[in-house]
Specification:
The protein has 575 residues and is of the alpha/beta class. It contains 22 helices and 20 strands.
Length: 575
């Protein structure tokens, strides 16, 4: 069983309300769910959609063919009617749209009329539509009623009951009038799973890692991290500060980190452009900080609500001077959680900036996920505090050591003076001008730490045929769609995927020589959501390996499974 539902309409029509409600009902009913959104950067109007896929087996990407379209405007019919499966249905309110679709695929459900007659207010039309979809799928409405009770509890019993009645009206109407509905939404057993998106997973990873300060200026797609953490301020003792701009945001985070707490900031490409000087400050002062960087199409404001992987090269080279940094690019909610935890650990351990590089697609998509294993969370305090700091005979913030990692203390925590300067400095932190100290400090900050950091970078995930003739490679949010494409193509092709989620520095070739694995393949393909192949160029620069074929997409939209398979098939003739 594998169905796809698309809710389309204008911004402000409650598309996300219907989509979120259906996703939660499906999860509670025991289904695996994947959803993604497509929306314009406007409050009202335009064309948006929310696409849901539900199945009785794990899924991780969207498909082209749609089984049910909920059309809240005429544009949704014009744009998406051709996507219907053979037995697919379009439900719409003919009176509200002033359009009555002809043909067996159309089902007129008077959302507003049913809402008014049964709920007392046509504002509940979306509740009617939600119930109608469940009726078409042959699902019971019990979980929807539970969801309504929880959602509207604070508005009183009257509102709860009115919405329940409206939802039931839509449910019954669809069951009675959809003669062509032959959907069979059955699940063997109901297991408890969570429904979670990329930004929530990053935020939860930060909380689990002991993050106690987050500063940011709102910017899509990173704003959700700030919103989530702000909602947990009292529960977890985290301070969330909406800064006046991104320059202030990164400097606040550096100040909080310098003062002794785990700190994080978040932004998108345009905002990170303002943070770059602060990034170099972190490099020179060796102040740990985690930066969540959400990619969207640029340059400038670009497509504010669309997706792209265009900022990898920017992050690798950002900042003046040379200093180490690490870039993680999660491809799923699980990776987003665990890599955020690893980011905090490495940032403090090596006293460097670490990036969580994600994109709008990962931020807005939602997956079913079993649970996070808190036993895997690493939360070590690398700072000198209290007696450990007090017992030192003296304290040199930038002391030369065998590893290049200097003692990191908390100012004001003991009797020692902590000195830090953004100019080149000596071991104690005082400004210097001599060449010998400069050379030793560069070696300490960069050259001595770099091999230790690189040894912590995990190899890419290999999935599929261990002796594959075709190897598909990608990074970040491409994980889910690559995995499903490999599963589909494996029925007729010797194929595997390499997915990189720890992208800079690239992993050592031990214990897994991924470059040699790629060289053995008859056809190697790299897919990215950018125009210049930023990851493939990085891999070539670091390992000398050059891919046989490249798949690039840079229109702001993610690949569906069928679209990616089509691109791969276009290259299989070259074997």
């Amino acid at each position: 069983m594998d169905y796809s539902i698309k809710i389309g309409g204008e911004a402000g029509q409650g598309i996300q309300t219907i989509g979120d409600a259906l996703c939660r009902v499906f999860v509670r009913s025991g289904y695996h769910v994947f959803s993604h959104q497509d929306y314009e950067s406007r409050i009202r109007g335009g064309h948006n959609f929310y696409q849901i896929r539900l199945s009785n087996k794990p899924i991780s990407a969207s498909r082209n063919r749609i089984d049910i379209i909920v059309a809240l405007d005429r544009e949704s019919i014009n744009r998406h009617e051709h996507e219907l499966t053979t037995n697919g249905m379009i439900i719409h309110d003919a009176s509200a749209l002033r359009f009555n679709g002809e043909g067996a695929a159309f089902l007129d459900i008077p959302f507003e009329k049913l809402a008014f007659e049964h709920g007392g207010d046509k504002i509940m039309a979306n509740t009617v539509a939600t119930g109608a979809v469940l009726g078409m799928l042959g699902m019971e409405s019990g979980h929807l009623m539970e969801l309504i009770a929880g959602t509207f509890r604070h508005k009183g019993d009257d509102v709860v009951q009115a919405n329940k009645i409206a939802a039931n009206a839509g449910h019954q109407y669809a069951k009675q009038h959809c003669d062509r509905c032959a959907f069979a939404a059955a699940v063997n057993e109901v297991e408890k799973r969570m429904l979670i998106g990329g930004v929530e997973s990053i935020a939860l990873g930060a909380l689990a890692s002991g993050c106690r300060f987050y500063s940011a200026y709102p910017m899509t797609p990173s704003t959700g991290i700030m919103n989530f953490l702000a909602s947990k301020e009292n529960e977890y003792g985290v301070v969330v500060e909406q800064a006046e701009d991104e320059i202030a945001a990164i400097n606040m985070a550096l100040g909080a980190s310098y003062a002794g707490v785990r700190a994080m900031t978040g932004t998108s490409g345009g905002g990170f452009a303002l943070m770059v000087e602060g990034l170099s400050l972190a490099g020179m002062t060796e102040t740990p900080v985690v930066i969540a960087m959400g990619q969207r199409p640029g340059p400038a404001t670009g497509f504010p609500t669309r997706t792209e992987q265009g900022d990898l090269a920017f992050l690798i080279s950002a900042g003046h001077g040379e200093f180490p940094r690490v870039i993680f690019a999660p491809g799923s909610p699980g990776e987003a959680f665990y890599l955020t935890n690893k980011a905090f650990d490495i940032a403090e351990k090596y006293q460097i900036p670490v990036f969580i590089l994600f994109d709008t697609y990962l931020a807005d998509s939602q997956w079913t996920f079993d649970s996070f294993d808190l036993g895997r969370v690493r939360n070590i305090d690398y700072r000198l505090r209290g007696d450990a700091f007090k017992k030192l005979p003296d304290y040199k913030r930038h002391a030369f050591t065998e590893t290049g990692i200097s003692p990191l203390a908390v100012p004001g925590d003991a009797g020692h003076v902590v000195v830090v300067d953004s100019d080149e400095h000596d071991e104690e932190g005082h400004i210097v001008e001599d060449a010998a100290t400069r050379t030793r400090m560069v070696e300490k900050r960069l050259l001595m730490k770099r091999p230790l950091i690189k040894a912590e970078i995990a190899p890419p995930e290999l999935y599929g045929d261990q002796e594959a003739s075709v190897v598909l490679t990608g990074w970040g949010s491409t994980y889910g769609v690559m995995k499903e494409a490999v599963d589909e193509l494996a029925k007729s092709t010797s194929i595997a995927m390499l997915h990189f989620s720890e992208v800079f520095p690239l992993p050592n070739l031990e214990p897994f020589d991924y470059a040699a694995f790629l060289r053995k393949a008859m056809l190697s393909i790299c897919m990215e959501h950018n125009a210049t192949g930023q990851f493939s160029r990085l891999l070539r620069a670091e390992t000398g390996f050059e891919f046989d074929a490249l798949i690039h997409r840079y229109d702001g939209r993610p690949f569906t499974v069928e679209e990616l398979i089509g691109e791969i098939n276009g290259h299989l003739g070259n074997i």
